[in-house]
Amino acid sequence: MSKGGPRIHALAVYLKSLQLFSYERLRMAMRDLFGLTISEGALMNMFKRTKPAFEAKRTQALTALRQARFVACDETGARIEGVNAYQWVFCCKQAVVHTAAFSRGAQVVRDILDGHRPQVWTSDRYSAQQNHAYRQQTCLAHLARDARFADENSEDDAPFRLRLWFDRAFALARDIETAAVSTVRAKRRALERDLTSILDAQTVCPLTRELLDKIARAREQLLTFCDFPGEVEATNNVSERGLRPCVIQRKVTNGYRAEWAAHFEAGVRTVIDTARLAGAGPFQTLLQVLHA
C-alpha cells in the first residue's frame, strides 16, 4: 500500500458510510479530487479488504458490552439484498455495538449478550426487548408521546393528568444527580402515589383505556432510573441517536445490495461510535484502524 493508501481508504470509508455517498458519487469524487480512476468494483473490493480490521475492533466493543451493568437497546428497519431486515444498536458507557440482522426477535439480543445479564436494560415496550436484565427501564419518551396523542383525541382528563405526570418524571430525571437522596425518594413516592390515582380512573374511552392498560403493564419499569442516578436514563434517546444514521441511510439509499455491506457498515459504525465516547473524531478513528 502506498504512503497515501490508508488515508485514501479512510476517506473512501468516511464518504461511503458516514456521508452516504453512492458508489458512483464516490468514484467521481476520487477522480475529481485526487485524479484517481477507481471503478465501483475496485471500491467494493477495497471495503471488503478493510472489513476484518473493523470486525476486530467491533469484537473489542462487544467484549466491553458483555461486561456492562447498564445497557440500552433499540432497532430500526432496513433493507438488505431486497429483503426486510433490521439494524440493532446496543449502548453502554464503554461501547456502542451495531449489528445487522434479518430478525427483530429476542434471539438477536441473546446472541449479542452471549449469556451476559446486565443490571438494567433500557428499551421501548417491544416484547423482544423484555427480560434481558435483572431490572428494566421503559423509555418514558415513548409513553409520553402516547399520552399526548390520547390527550389530543380524548375528552377524558386521565391522559392530561398523565402528561403532567411525565413532565414531573422528566424533571426528576434531569435533577437526580444534584438532588438530595431524601428529595429523590420523596418525589418518587409522590409520583407512585399519583400514578395509582390516575390508573384507577374510570373511563369509557377506548383510547384512554388502552393507554392506561399499557402504562399499568409497564408500571414496575417506569421509575427504575431513580435507583441508579447518573447511570440509567429515563428515556432511550441514546439508542435513538445511535440509530439515526441508519435511518438516514435507509431513506437515502433504500438499503444494501449485499449482506456483507450491511455487516461492514455495522462494524464501521461500532468503531466510530465507540471511539466517540472517548472524544475521538470519526476520520482520525478510521485512520487509526486502517494504519494498525
Question: How would you describe this structure in keywords?
Answer:
292 residues; alpha/beta; 5 strands; 12% strand
Describe the 3D structure.
By secondary structure, this protein is α/β, with parallel strands linked by helices. The protein has a domain at 140-224. It is built from eleven helices and five strands. It has helices at 5-18, 23-34, 40-65, 106-113, 140-153, 158-175, 181-199, 206-217, 237-253, 259-276, 282-291; strands spanning 70-80, 83-91, 96-101, 120-123, 135-138. It has a five-stranded mixed sheet. Strand 2 (83-91) and strand 3 (96-101) form a beta hairpin. It is elongated and about 70 Å long. The model has no long low-confidence stretch (mean pLDDT 95).
The largest sheet, given as strand count, sense and whether it forms a barrel, is: 5 strands, mixed
| Proportion of residues in extended strands | 5-15%
Distance between the termini: 13 Å
Order of helices and strands: HHHEEEHEEHHHHHHH
**Helix coverage percent of residues?**
55-70%
Q: What's the helix count?
A: 11
The pLDDT mean sits at 95
- Low-confidence parts: none
Number of beta-strand segments: 5
Q: Compute the gyration radius: what is it?
A: 22 Å
Outline type: elongated
Order of strands across the widest beta sheet?
A: 3-2-1-4-5
Structural class: alpha/beta
